[in-house]
Amino acid sequence: MTLLEGFGTTVLLFAATLVVSLPLGLIVCFGSMSKVPPIRWIARVFVWIIRGTPLMLQVMVVFYVPGLVFDYPMRSRFIAVFIAFVINYACYFSEIYRGGIESVPRGQYEAAQVLGMTKTQVFFRIILPQVVKRILSPMSNEVITLVKDTSLARVIAVEEIIFAAQGIINSYALIWPLFYSGAFYLIFVGVLTLIFRAAEKKLSYYKV
User: Fold this and answer.
1) Could you tell me the CATH superfamily of domain 2-104+135-202?
2) b/e per residue, 82-108, with b = 16+ CB within 10 A?
3) Using CA atoms, how far apart are residues 99 and 156, in angstroms rounded to an integer?
4) N or C: which end of the chain has fewer CB within 10 A?
5) Is 137:125 a contact under the CB 8 Å cutoff?
6) For residue 47, is pLDDT > 60?
7) DSSP 103
């Protein structure tokens, strides 16, 4: 039962992080590509800091700093981990988005605008379909990494599956929880790999 609860926490953290960080990453991407220098540099420095420090450290900062510095401790360990994960993965996703957008030839923007399309129409009808195809592979790698990174939640005693398995091992001197948790990750990653392969095959009509 403890492993099942840990499994549920891991899946919830994974899904919630993905749902929030994907659109947030696009906003950060637009910020780092902004033509307004202050916005562009703030976004890029923020991304640099997040990508340059360990996720484990970020989890600890989000959980401990509000209480130590502002005397307003985090009341939920899960929320602290969730915030840290969202910020971290939004920054990584933003760089993937930026690379995909910048890889589209500039001439396509100009040609579409000559045809009378607005910037919004150009982005969603011309650029976005190409970007999705170009970023699918690096995005799949990052999503799979997120599955395994959920184990870092145990740093602040969030009861994800590895934390639950470790508790059973310490209490009953049993080794099987490690194999169960390892099998969970292998199956989870295997399912995601099949989903991304199917998506790549579906988008293979467009050759880059």
Assistant:
1) MetI-like (1.10.3720.10)
2) bbbbbbbbbbbbbbbbbebbeebeeee
3) 34
4) N
5) no
6) yes
7) T
